[in-house]
Amino acid sequence: MPLPDRLNGRAADGYNCNLDLIASVGDTTGTPTPKVYGGVSLDSYEDCLYQSIASADGVLGRGGTEVLDMSDTRSPVRTALLPLNPTESLRVHAARGLLAGVHEDLSFKIYDVRDDCRHPRLVFSGMVPGIGDSHEGWFSPDGTVYFASWGTDSELPSLAIDVSDTARPRPLASFSRYVHGGATSADGTRTYAAYIGPEDKDNQGGDTNPSELLIYDSSRIRDGHMRLISRFPLPNTQWSHGFFPVRYGTRKYLLQYGEHGLNSVGFGGLGCTSRTLSPFQYPNIIDISDERRPRIVATLVQEIGEPARCASALNFDRPAFPRNTPFVPTLGIYAAFSYGTHMCRPDRLDNPTILACSGFASGLRVYDIRDPHSPRELAYFNPGTLGPTDPAPDFTVSPPVVRARDGEIWFNSLFSGLQIVKFAPGVHPFESDCTDKPDHLFAQYNPGIRCG
C-alpha cells in the first residue's frame, strides 16, 4: 500500500490478486466516522462462523462473539451474540461440537454448537483454578484438553484444562510462563509452545531476545506432566504466535507464524538499526523430523519486508491513524506491526497446499506451500484505507478460515469487518486438492466434502 496511493485516495479501493470480494459484514469504511468492528478471534463450525467484534462505540474486542449463519456466503445472517470477549483464545473443536474461550473476566466458557451452531448453548462458565489473563488458546486434536496461555499478560504459567467432561473442566498440568499460543500433535504426544519471554511492561528494557519454539512431551498430560524436550530460538521473531504441525509425506514440519520482528519499531524493537533483519516477522516452515534439532527451511517474506526496505517500510505510518475515528485505546498497537504477519491457517495438516495469513496493513496473503522448501505467494486481498480522504490503513488481524471446498476464505479486518473472498477460476483448489482421508483441520473447514 504505497504512501502516495494512501494520500491521493487510490488505496481506498484496496488491492487484490486472484481473490475477489463476494460479501462483507460490518464495513464502516468510507463513512464520516469509521469505527472498529472486526476483532482478532475467528473460527467456524459447519456453516456457522464465530468472531469477536468491537463494542458499539468501537472498542476492540469488547462487543462479544458474533454468530453468523454462512449457509449463503453472499448474504451472511447474524443469529446470536454471545457474552464472550475472548481476545485471541476463541477455538472450535469440530468433532466434539465445542466452542471455547477465556473471557476478559478470566472465566472459562464452553458452548455446545453441535445441536444448533446458529444458537450455541452455554455448557460451562466459571473459574478454573490456575487460569490467568485471557490471550490465546488451542484444543488438543481429540478435543479433551484445552490449552490456555496468556503471553506476558499474567504471572501464572500456561494451563492445560481437562474438558472431557465439559460441564466440569479441571486443571491438568501447568507449563511455561510467557507462552503466546501453540499446537498439539495429532496423537497428542507432542505440544509446541510459542515462548515469547518476559516483557518489560514499560517497553524500556529493549526486549530484543528472539522468541523460541518449545517442544514438550505431552503424552502424560493426564498425569499432570509435560516434559520439555527441546527449545529452538526463532530468528527475527520477537513475539511468536503459534504453530500448525503438518506432514509432507512422512516428514514432520511446523508452520510457524508470529508478529513483530526484532528490527521493527516499538516494544523494544531495533528500529531498522540492523541491515540484515526484516522489520517484520513472517511465517517460517520448520523441519522437526529431528525434534532436538529443528531447522528453518523457508521463510515467507514479502518484498516490503526485505531488510533494505526497512526505513521506507516503517515510514508508512505517516499518518498512521484514522483522521475522523473516535479515539480507540487499543488501536494504536497495530501501527508497530505495519506489514508483518499476525495469524495464519493452512488448508490441511497432511500435505498442505496453501497457507492463508492475516498481514495487518498487507491484508490477507495466501501462499502456495506444496513444496515446503520453495513456497511462493499465490494471492492477496488488501481492504486498503478507510476512505479517499482518510489514508489510515485497515488492519487485517484474524486467523483466516480456508474453505477449499468452495474456493473461499473468510477473514476480518478492523474496519471492514468480516469479508468473504473467492479465488479466481483455476487458482485454488488445485486439481489434486481433494483428499479421501481428510485430517481434522481439513474436515472442520470443509464439512461434508466428498472426493472421487
Structure description:
The chain has 452 residues and is mostly beta strands. The chain has one domain: 7 Propeller (Methylamine Dehydrogenase, Chain H), CATH 2.130.10. Helix content is 4%, strand content 37%. It has a five-stranded antiparallel sheet, with no helix packed on it. A four-stranded antiparallel sheet has the order 2-31-30-29, with no helix packed on it. The chain has a four-stranded antiparallel sheet with strand order 3-4-5-6, with no helix packed on it. It is globular.
Structure, briefly:
This protein is mainly beta and 452 residues long. The protein contains 3 helices and 31 strands.
Strand content: 35-45%
CA-atom Rg in angstroms: 20 Å
Principal-axes shape call: globular
Averaged pLDDT, please?
88
Going across the major beta sheet, what is the strand order? 1-26-25-24-23
Write the CATH homologous superfamily.
YVTN repeat-like/Quinoprotein amine dehydrogenase
CATH class: Mainly Beta
Beta-strand segment tally: 31
Count of structural domains: 1
Q: Return residue spans where pLDDT drops below 50 for at least 5 consecutive residues.
A: 200-207, 317-330
Class by SSE composition: mainly beta
Portion of residues within helices: under 10%
**Secondary structure tally, helices:** 3
Protein name: WD40-like Beta Propeller Repeat
Organism: Kibdelosporangium aridum
